[in-house]
Amino acid sequence: AFAAQGEDDKVMTFDMATTVQAWGKILDARSRNDVIPDNWAVNEQGEPTTDPFEVKALVPLSGPKGYGLMMMVDVLSGILLGLPFGSRVSSMYNDLTEGRNLGQLHIVINPSYFTDPQTFKQNISQTMKDLNAVKPAPGVKQVLYPGQNCDINEDESNLNGIEIVDEIYQYLLSDTLYNHSYDHKD
Fold first, then answer.
1. b (16+ CB within 10 A) / e for 117-128
2. What is the pLDDT of residues 158-170, one digit of tens each?
């Protein structure tokens, strides 16, 4: 993830998976019994699959460049810190009673070491305005700056609530979640 704050506390945020698609999209396809595009994931044999239930691994985005980016993130957030990396990172979906076994590296840069902080914020805000002013492609309503869609969705969710798949909603209401997931916590 990367974020830079502009004026009026608006933040340009870029947060992405280093794979063609995030694991949550696979779980969503499973919950809907939908197929997935054949460029998202591979099966046990390393072959492309459209069956979300056969997924063994996700495909890195942009081929070799995405693979390199994925490895860079793994080195910075795992190996460099002496923490789990690669297949040693625990799943966030398998066992909800276990905490995650993974690392994170946060690098915070003070803009005042490089430029005037107010000018920095003004330039970030100008970048956001410039991106919003770009003529959108046919069929696209507006060009958004990174993270703006999340801000829009959050505003809509605050007004209308968050849409959730019935299967997940029922799971959240069930005793399973409460009896098995949090029994080791205060």
1. eeebbebbbeeb
2. 888 888 878 778 8
Is the CB of residue 91 less than 8 Å from the CB of residue 97?
A: no
Q: What are the tens digits of pLDDT across the range 14-32?
A: 998 899 999 889 988 998 8
**Cβ-count burial of 144 within 10 angstroms (0-12 exposed, 13-18 middle, 19+ buried)?**
middle
How far is 72 from 79, CA to CA, in rounded Å?
Answer: 10
| CA-angle at 125, arms to 119 and 126, nearest 5° | 85
- Contacts made by residues 118-121, CB under 8 angstroms, sequence distance 24+: 121/5, 121/6, 121/7
Q: What one-character-per-residue DSSP string does 38-60 give?
A: TTSEE-TTS-B-S-GGG--EEPB
Residue type, 54: E
Task: Please answer whether residues 42 and 59 qualify as being in contact, where contact means their C-beta atoms are separated by less than 8 angstroms.
Answer: yes
pTM: 0.72
Residue type, 102: L
| Most confident segment among 66-75, 122-131, 155-164 | 122-131
Q: Which residues, in sequence order, are bridge partners of residue 2?
A: 14
**Is pLDDT above 80 for 185?**
no
